[in-house]
Amino acid sequence: MKSVIVKAPLRCELIDVPIPEPGPDEVLVRVVCCASNPRDWKAPDHLLPGVEINQGNEMSGFVESVGRNVFEFRKGDRVAAAHPMQTANGTYAEFATAPANTCFLLPPQISFEEGCTIPFAGCTAALGLYQRLKIPFPTSPDNAALQPPLIVYGGSSALGCFTLKLAKLGRFKKVIAVCGSGRAYVESLGVVTHFVDYRKGNVVDDLKAALDGEKCFHAVDAINDGKSWRQLSEILELDGSISVYLPRLDYSSIPSSIYVGITFFGTVHGQPTPGWDRRCEEDVDFAYVLFRLFGKWLSEGKMSGHPYTVLPNGLASVEDGLRQLKEGLVSARKLIYRVADTPGL
Ligand SMILES: NC(=O)c1ccc[n+]([C@@H]2O[C@H](COP(=O)([O-])OP(=O)(O)OC[C@H]3O[C@@H](n4cnc5c(N)ncnc54)[C@H](OP(=O)(O)O)[C@@H]3O)[C@@H](O)[C@H]2O)c1
Hints:
Layout: E1 2-7, E2 11-16, E3 26-35, H1 39-47, E4 58-66, E5 78-82, E6 95-99, E7 103-105, H2 112-115, H3 119-132, E8 150-153, H4 158-167, E9 175-179, H5 183-188, E10 194-197, H6 203-211, E11 218-221, H7 227-235, E12 241-244, E13 259-262, H8 283-300, E14 308-310, H9 318-326, E15 334-338
Parallel strand pairs: 8-9, 8-11, 9-10, 11-12, 12-13, 14-15
Antiparallel strand pairs: 1-2, 3-4, 3-6, 3-15, 4-5, 5-7
The structure holds NADP nicotinamide-adenine-dinucleotide phosphate.
């Protein structure tokens, strides 16, 4: 089968490899669509230099076979799934593997294109909101309780939008999104009460104006550019919490009384968070529950995928997609690929 290897400096190679076998707790998926994430170019470029593998983590398709411990999925099921980061058999390929805890059945009305935008960013957003900021999960009796304001820095990023969609399942006094040209889509979600444009004015002053004296204990920093968490530190109460998403950075400028929850998608597959001593073993079963609810919420219209652009030529366009992400050209959308569009397949 064909598989895309991501190399550094950024370049992709389409190679022939054997079709993988699923592990005991995995499904093997015949990939119909796969999606790109910023980490896919960052990993070989500077996070883990020298490791050149298929970096895809998100996909939708048909179950081809299942491992011996998998009892909920069977050949032919339409699914969306997340593949463990930095492991073999990634999703930029004709076939890819995923643990069953990060796989869900796609409701019939949800397309493969929409489905493949959800597993990675949707799951990471839920980890940040519920496991690190400890906002009540939608099944908690406390979910009906009114929460203090929530700030989502990078509201139009995939991570930000899924955080906002999940926030809509709860109750917040205010939901403040920091975004720029992606505002229109964020507005359409119908959950944000106040917008701050990071390209104009003074973000800290604008956040203070939006809070209008309300205390803020919870912030999501989906941008992590240094400026973002320093600005949020000026706004958060000293016993507040912030969820950050780039584990290897130095967050020591955030006052020590503020809880810094490092959200790392790998914990749902039992991987340790780089530079953090917490193992977050509970995240494995959290993802299991979440992925089943993703299917249900999608079927009920309570959840939706991220807007997307399908690049032409399937897997042959992964390099172009990753380059667009690297150059910051993508606003409020996912770049996705239909495997069947790959020339020669
Ligand atoms: N720890 C993990 O496991 C994990 C998982 C997923 C993602 N991440 C990381 O989280 C970050 C977001 O990922 P993503 O996939 O959600 O990214 P994305 O969708 O590609 O982000 C693009 C968005 O970023 C917004 N943006 C750029 N600069 C901004 C700024 N200064 N302030 C506010 N918004 C800004 C743009 O907003 P406008 O278009 O509105 O200008 C654009 O819509 C990345 O750094 C990624 O590596 C980490």
